[in-house]
Amino acid sequence: GVQRIEGKIVGANLREPDGFIESVTLENGERIGGDLFIDCSGFRGLLIEQSLETGYEDWSHWLPVDRAIAVPCETTEPLRPYTQACARPAGWQWRIPLQHRTGNGHVFSSDHISEDDAANILLEHVEGEPHGEPKLLRFTPGKRRRMWNRNCVAIGLSGGFLEPLESTSIYLIQAAVMKLLELFPDREFATPDIDAFNRSLDTMFDEVRNFIILHYKATERDDSEFWNYCRTMSIPDELEERMRLFRERGVAAHRRSELFIETNWLAVYLGQGVMPRAFDPRTGCMNDEEIRNRMQLMREYLQGAAKALPTHAESIAAYCAATEAA
Q1: Mean pLDDT, to the nearest integer, of 138-152?
Q2: Residues near 319 by Cβ (< 8 Å), separated by ≥ 6?
């Protein structure tokens, strides 16, 4: 019974007296009515912001990067089995190897470098011949004050955006879809359902935000104005408490419902040089020799598993080789 209607939406019509969206107007003048509207209009927030004026929480003071320049290039051999993220003076650069091209991008703070200089840095560090000119994306890190407002739910970029350092956008989209299915409304649009949805999405965004902030705050870099700002900036209270706990005796506090688990936090803490002052006293239940033996067994198990696995190229050839047409 679904009817697909394609067209460019130019505005929304609100009903009196509750301000719910009654219909949207297409470029050709046609009005499309509905009970529930999902805003997937990207950064514009055509319904959630331009029509309902929901408001936006700007997190630029914690996540100062607000631009991204991207360009694909020729694939270089051998094909690497991982994405690279490399720090730059005013942000960081990604390198994503694919079978027929390599994706490259420079995420940076416009307060600390010009767009032209950022593009030059990107092009200086691509490893193959670029495919076309770099494309610029501007954004404001943060989220809507309410991702579900009246009879409109903002999902994706219309609901908020956190920079791509941990590639969390698809996760947050899927989480919003699943939460909407769990709390799907009837025409009454019960306030407890809407409030529960917004609390849940607020928590998810806050948790992901804090993990990304950690990457910047924990840095020891002092070679540019950007990194000096990140190292010395104030951070959310919850993240400050987590960092204090880890610095005290290695407790990587996290909620079981979080996207990022203990090993993720440990990788950033230790990789950035954040070391505990002391160890967990529970380790005193084992003597040093027993601990060494268990660590050695773990090392041997992991090395054996790695040796038994096929190479990256072998896996691609066997399961997901791309055609030339792709």
Answers
A1: 97
A2: none
